[in-house]
């Protein structure tokens, strides 16, 4: 019993490392953990954490390690910050995973099975969902804000590169124009005619 209590306390402490659970009391988290809905899982490098298209009610909290996010086999993000939420969109949207996540190094996660709420009675179920959705909305909003900031950086970089390219092209055009003018100024018609005559002459 003491060992189970210690395991529960450790899992709750790990959950508390994420603001996702800030609206939940110790009793709330204890019930969630003791129900078996929360467990710790380690992934080896290259192991699939979630797979695009699969529908599951689980999501993950990254404790340590690093993971790559692939959408249609194209890498779209790398996750390495402890506390990062992984795979929550399937639970929120009620449809298949929107991306595949692969462990890019030995990775330690908390797995949270939101099938837990199916066994709660009303109004406790609704109250739980309101609180978790509120926090997940903040996670998604923060992620969107970061993505938009990165988009702005990329647009700026593209614009600067484009301007540099235009300047470079303009400079190269000036060089080419100067070379053409120099080429046109070199009248070698007479020399070419003399050379042909000399080559055709028989000695």
UniProtKB/TrEMBL annotation:
Recorded GO MF terms: DNA-binding transcription factor activity
SMART domains for this protein: cNMP
Q: Which UniProt keywords apply?
A: Coiled coil
Tell me where in this chain the Cyclic nucleotide-binding domain is found.
20-113
Q: Does the keyword Repeat apply?
A: no
Which Pfam families would you find in this protein's record?
cNMP_binding (PF00027)
What InterPro entries does the record point to? cNMP-bd_dom, cNMP-bd_dom_sf, Env_Response_Regulators, RmlC-like_jellyroll
Q: Which residues form a coiled coil?
A: 162-189
* Gene Ontology CC annotations of this record: cytosol
Q: Does the keyword Coiled coil apply?
A: yes
This protein is called: Putative transcriptional regulator, Crp/Fnr family
């Amino acid at each position: 019993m003491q060992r189970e209590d210690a395991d529960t306390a450790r899992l709750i402490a790990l959950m508390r490392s994420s603001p996702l659970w800030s609206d939940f009391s110790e009793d709330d988290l204890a019930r969630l953990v003791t129900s078996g809905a929360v467990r710790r899982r380690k992934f080896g490098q290259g192991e699939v954490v979630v797979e695009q298209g699969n529908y599951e009610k689980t999501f993950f909290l990254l404790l340590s390690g690093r993971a790559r996010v692939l959408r249609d086999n194209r890498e779209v993000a790398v996750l390495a910050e402890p506390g990062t939420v992984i795979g929550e969109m399937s639970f929120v949207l009620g449809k298949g995973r929107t991306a595949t996540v692969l462990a890019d190094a030995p990775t330690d996660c908390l797995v949270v099975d939101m099938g837990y709420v199916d066994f709660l009675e009303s109004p406790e179920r609704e109250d739980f969902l309101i609180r978790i959705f509120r926090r997940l909305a903040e996670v998604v909003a923060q992620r969107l804000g970061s993505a938009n900031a990165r988009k702005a950086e990329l647009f700026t970089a593209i614009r600067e590169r484009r301007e540099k390219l235009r300047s470079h092209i303009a400079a190269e055009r000036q060089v080419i124009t100067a070379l053409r003018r120099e080429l046109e100024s070199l009248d070698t018609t007479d020399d070419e005619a003399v050379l042909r005559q000399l080559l055709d002459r028989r000695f």
